[in-house]
Amino acid sequence: MDEQIKQIGERVRGLRDALDLSIEEMAADCQLDLKQYQQIESGESDISVSTLQRIAHRFDIPLDVLMFGEEPKMSSYFLTRKGTGISVERTKAYKYESLASGFRNRKADPFIVTVEPKPDDTPMYYNTHSGQEFNLVIEGRLLLSINGKELVLNPGDSLYFNSSLPHGMKALDGKTVKFLAIVMQ
Fold first, then answer.
1. Span of 48-52, 76-80, 139-143, 180-184 with lowest mean pLDDT
2. Which residue ranges form the domains of the chain, and what is each CATH number?
3. First CA to last CA across the chain, in angstroms?
4. Could you tell me how far CA 73 lies from the centroid of its own chain?
5. Helix or strand holding residue 158 (H, E)
């Protein structure tokens, strides 16, 4: 996991170098404070998918380039067989498997997200990003908090929401949760 986060940081730094921007300019363009941005580039800090999406959207590059280091190539269809999507483990608790990484000019980013259980007293990490999100629980039970409202999703349950509202998730019952997440800008 740490190696993947460092590789993402290197790709973000490479983007900044290619654009000939200072660290301060890049942090401002990405709507991040300077220290947070420096930690991302150095690989010292996890980076949320929403932050990567914001960077990708701001500089008009595919999210896959930042997350996986690959440029999408397909424009008519892209098939992902079960368990073969390009994945990145952002933290020890979250793993994202891209289901459409090879499709160019996507209007949405579908992922299989795996959330590992944490101790009950672990605070929930909240995220915001532009657009909308759809989540469908495949296995396990998921606590999803949206703008302070807590919802429990069971296998087969789904939720569509405004992702600019603060939202966070947590695996319940001490078991791993898998869900389909589709993020739309």
1. 48-52
2. 2-68 (1.10.260.40), 87-184 (2.60.120.10)
3. 27
4. 21
5. strand 158-162
Picking from 3, 113, 26, 11, the residue whose alpha carbon sits closest to that of residue 70 is 11
Residue pLDDT, tens place only, 101-144:
888 888 899 999 999 998 888 888 888 888 899 999 999 999 99
DSSP strand E in 23-157: where? Answer: 87-89, 94-98, 108-115, 132-139, 142-146, 149-153
Amino acid code (one letter) for 172: L
Contact present, 180 and 136 (Cβ < 8 Å): yes
Q: Which residue has the tokens 């997200």?
A: 113
If you compute the radius of gyration of the chain from its CA atoms, what whole number of angstroms results? 16
Judge if pTM exceeds 0.90.
no
Contact call for residues 51 and 32 (beta carbons, < 8 A): yes
CA angle at residue 8 from 21 to 129, to 5 degrees? Answer: 80
Go through 138-169 and write b for each residue having 16 or more CB atoms within 10 A of its CB, e for each that does not: eebbbbbbbeeeeeebeeeeebebebeeebeb
